Amino acid sequence: MGTATWGTNAVDWEERIPMDRLRSERLERLQNELKTSDCGAILAFDFANIRYMTATHIGTWAMDKLIRFALLTRNSDPILWDFGSAAKHHAERDPWLNTTTAEMDADPHAPHHGAVKPRLEPGSRAGISTLRGAFSPDAGIAEEVARKIKRELEKFGLADEPLGVDVIELPILFALQKAGIEVVDGQQVFLEARKIKTADEISLLTQAASMVDAAYDKLYEFLRPGVRENETVGLVAKTLYDMGSEYVEGVNAISGERCSPHPHVYSDRIIRPGDPAFFDILHSYNGYRTCYYRTFAVGSASPAQNDAYKRAREYMDRAIALVKPGATTADIVSVWPTAQEFGFEDEEAAFALQYGHGVGLSIWEKPIFSRLVSIDHPEVLEEGMFFALETYWPAADGWGAARIEEELVVTADGCEVVTKFPAEELLVAGQRLYTVNGPLPDVRSAQSHLNTAEGRGEK
Questions:
Q1: What is the domain range of residue 361?
Q2: pLDDT at residue 68, as a whole number
Q3: Whether pTM exceeds 0.85
Q4: For residue 240, what is the domain's CATH number?
Q5: In a domain, 107, yes or no
Q6: What is the 3-state secondary structure (H, E, C) of the chain?
């Protein structure tokens, strides 16, 4: 299946992405990772981890709330506590959660004491966390979360085993510890499971990238002097939502003198003739994300901007050429410049400019590529990893900069680049301008003074 893409709808005449297989293969990977860990169970509050475990979604508004939570033990299927009526909805519409949590404890009141008494409970249940502290601490919400979790751990014989947690609010942590539960870092269990993508995940990631291909085509047509950065954000968001995007996480629109240093946030700046402009488009299709930079020149480019783009592209191409199973993140970052080479005092100050990161249900997954960590702590690349590589180079004029990002999947003998909008050379967007001598050059100085005796070469 690989990087194939289809229409976004299901049809009866073609097998596209079997969602049942997507759900079962993700859960199997997580269960296997849990078995090899030191944890008896893992508890998720992170939105992406909950989705990976339970294949549930209640809207992107909930992503930063930490209100829902899910538990997977070595001896049970996932158990999900969800927000209000969402739990009832899952029970009615998500059958893969309805056959979970078979209780296998000894019943002391049974005729044959010590016999196993199986009992089924719903996998989707009502439950809520502390609303990031908005509930009064006296309401006992944190203690109730801990009670729910402890009950399951005891029921499945894991009360004395460490509980891995991904992210957690302090009142919940303290309540779990007070209940006698040993809490450890469980994020690594989730990220290790999510590190290698299934064929269906790769297809969804590729489909998400194909939607950004289209958004960049619209953006290229739209860019011209007088457009504001925030207008480009609106155009991209509408294009993606019209195509079926689940969530446009952000459009990083940067132009002109804002390109260097990179501020990582768009503004209402008006784009001017000759401006560099780069964009990062982050959105989600069926949960799977993109992180996808492209750089344009508007109307024309200065020689310094063109040179910056060539440098950024060269560093990108060097990195891609090294990607294959068995290579390491240290191999990749070794062909990128040091922080000092492009104007920063150290790698922490330059972090995320020459950078790479896994992409999946969230945009910064394993593996990570950065001189800050990868030289001393390399990670080995494996077939099925899906990640983005991004490069940056400031223009010599101290004003512009170039930013390029490609998403790729590691194949059996190398890699395949998934992001398809052209980026081999600097693209010039906007209306072509003509002089009496023909088209205005695409590469030109920011301001000319040709109509002087000196400019005309007169003595």
A1: 197-439
A2: 96
A3: yes
A4: 3.90.230.10
A5: yes
A6: CCCCCCCCCCCCCCCCCCHHHHHHHHHHHHHHHHHHCCCCEEEECCHHHHHHHHCCCCCHHHCCCCCCEEEEECCCCCEEEECCCHHHHHHHHCHHHCCCCEEEEECCCCCCCCCEEEEECCCEEECCCCCCCCCCHHHCHHHHHHHHHHHHHHHCCCCCCCEEECCCCHHHHHHHHHCCCCEEECHHHHHHHHHECCHHHHHHHHHHHHHHHHHHHHHHHHCCCCCEHHHHHHHHHHHHHHHCCCEEEEEEEEEHHHHCCCCCCCCCCECCCCCEEEEEEEEEECCEECCEEEEEEECCECHHHHHHHHHHHHHHHHHHHHCCCCCEHHHHHCCCCCHHHHCCCCCCCCCCCCEEEECCCCCCEEEEECCCCCCCCCCECCCCEEEEEEEEEECCCCCCEEEEEEEEEECCCCEEECCCCCCCCCEEECCCCEECCEECCCECCCCCCCCCCCCCCCC
